[in-house]
Amino acid sequence: MIAMGRLGVFTVAIGSAFLAPVFGLALKRFSGVEPLTLQTFHQADLIWGGAIVLSLILTFFLRETGAAARRAPLAAPAHWS
To answer: Per-residue pLDDT tens for 27-63?
Structure first.
């Protein structure tokens, strides 16, 4: 299972915020003046499929930079002093 850090949550939230209007416009464009059908939703869902693929690719190139990325330094064993 892939652990999702803050960067992953941020990426999903921003992606959803930007793609929701695009999805709505695609639904409107694909349906024209006709009522929305299942086929219209299937065509518009390609946008979300592309967004998922893009986000998976971005996870390999973006790094976590917040507190979750910082690790506590390892303490030397007591017998080394």
So the answer is: 888 888 888 888 888 888 888 888 788 878 877 887 7
Residue ranges covered by each domain of the chain: 20-63
Measured CA to CA in angstroms, residue 7 lies from 55, 59, 67, 68, 71 at distances of 11, 9, 11, 10, 16
Q: Which backbone phi and psi does 65 adopt, to 5 degrees?
A: -120, 0
CB contact at 8 A, 40 and 64: no
Asked if 59 contacts 8 with a C-beta cutoff of 8 angstroms, the reply is yes
- The pLDDT-based confidence of 1 (bands split at 50, 70, 90) is very low
Q: What is the dihedral of CA 27, 30, 32, 36, to 10 degrees?
A: -60
Please tell me the distance from the alpha carbon of residue 65 to that of residue 53, in angstroms, as a whole number: 22
Which amino acid is it at 53?
A: V
